[in-house]
Amino acid sequence: LSSALVLGLTLTGMWLGHYYLTSPSIPLGPLRRFGRTYLVAMGLHTLVISLVTLIHLCDSQSAVRSSLGVNNFQDVLAWVRLLIGLAAPMVLAWMIDESAKLGANMSVTGLFYLALAKAMVGELIGRVYLTMQGALF
Q1: Virtual CA dihedral for 33, 39, 40, 42, nearest 10 degrees?
Q2: What is the DSSP string of 96-111?
Q3: Once rounded to an integer, what is the mean pLDDT over residues 62-78?
């Protein structure tokens, strides 16, 4: 549910940013509120995935726990999921919020593009873990 929320908000933010680029005379209040909403949603998503990861670390038989040990090349994907798919979008969410406060709608739109690419990579890897190893990650 949090994944769907984050991906939906990221795509919607990108569209909203494009709307602001084509109509620069509209007030910036909605863009600022959306930037804050995205930051909160990304924070909640990061919290949920962090809790799930901690639960996996407590289970000695977990596929995610063994993947975080990086025993083979495929195990690198677990770290890509956490760093590129979770930490990077969280930093971008903060940057989006700060740029929206400044009224820099071009920056907000570009940052949403980056956040979408990184979030998609992370969620795709998360789905691979769910499908291939039966582990929610």
Answers
A1: 140
A2: HHHHHHHT-HHHHHHH
A3: 80
